Amino acid sequence: MMILHSKPTIDDSDINVVVNVLTSGHLEDGENVEILESAFRKKYNRKYAAAVSSGFSAIHLALISLEVGENDEVIIPSYTCSALLNPILLLKAKPIIIDVDKDSFNISADNLHKRISKRTKAIIVPHTFGFPAPIEEIISLGIPVIEDCAQAIGGSFKGKLLGNFGQLSVFSFYASKMICSGDGGMILTDNEQFIETIKNFRYYGHKKLHKYLAYNYHMTNLPAALANSQLQKNNEFILKRKELASFYDEYFDNHPLIQTDFANKCEACFYRYPVRVGNKIDIIKFGMESEGVKCGYGVLEGMHQMLDLNDNNFPNTMNNLKSILSLPIYPTLKKEETELIAEKLINLIEKL
User: Fold this and answer.
1) Whether 22 and 157 share a structural domain
2) Domain ends where: 229, 261, 285?
3) Whole-structure pTM value
4) 197, 212, 229: which is the final residue of a domain?
5) Is residue 103 part of a domain?
6) Which residue in 204, 185, 159 sits closest to 52, CA to CA?
7) Residue 270 vs residues 17, 86, 93, 177: alpha-carbon distances, Å
8) pLDDT tens profile 312-343
9) DSSP per residue over 250-295, as a string?
10) What count of other Cβ atoms lies within 10 Å of the Cβ of residue 155?
11) Does residue 4 form part of some domain?
């Protein structure tokens, strides 16, 4: 049987809440969405929350709330998902792509300093793979920050929940994320004007003489009910992920061909368990699959590559793309399976 790279953790309590919505006859947005927004406000101690249809729509609406428009500059890392890049382009703004730090998956604060200009309207800061970014240093620059917690729901940094740092924080409930609802997202902020704008643009319906070119970005009761059920188990999920990561650490300890030590790993919530395995990443990935283990690339391509920028200006991103393999890690994975995965990876690498 194939060990999957990602897998949602669904139990009877999740199934029951979904069935309850299905039998209620109310699949539209409503009470379950309000319950989820309230739960996020309470968990993160933020004033306002808006549930949305995806992490992508959360980023798009967050940028709109900051009045990002044509020729404005928005800074993002290269080693990330295109869900950060595409909303910037949709708004006809200019993406400024920054390399990540060495032995890190997150945006380089040092490189960021050099790229801020009078036209910089926002910085999007993901906590990639659940490893905290240098968020405090970035916040201190005084540029509005959209904190991207899509891969870090429930994670923390210096005793403070990730999602409590940015002027706006965005979350994703995609099927493989820390909690899932099939798809969905959330935006948190303490700014009343931001949340008013977000709610005006979130959905084109429910209002007469709507003054905004609004989207179909709202969440409905069905995914909201599942997300809320999952949120209640978020801490439990993270404890399990950390336990599995510790097993991997033990298996790979001091192996000369497998690097597992990365920036801020001690505070990671392990959406992914990344390892650096040298430059034969494709051979290793497909070799593992032939052995019954699905692994991932981590990030498929750099954002600078999507804009045809010079690879030489993004050496750390390129190194990650060529050498980082993502191993299976999710709450239902068993210790024996992590041992099997580690054994197969070590055997494969040592044969190359």
Assistant:
1) yes
2) 229
3) 0.96
4) 229
5) yes
6) 185
7) 27, 26, 32, 11
8) 999 999 999 999 999 999 999 999 999 999 99
9) HHHTT-TT-B---TTGGG---SSEEEE--S-HHHHHHHHHHTTB--
10) 23
11) no
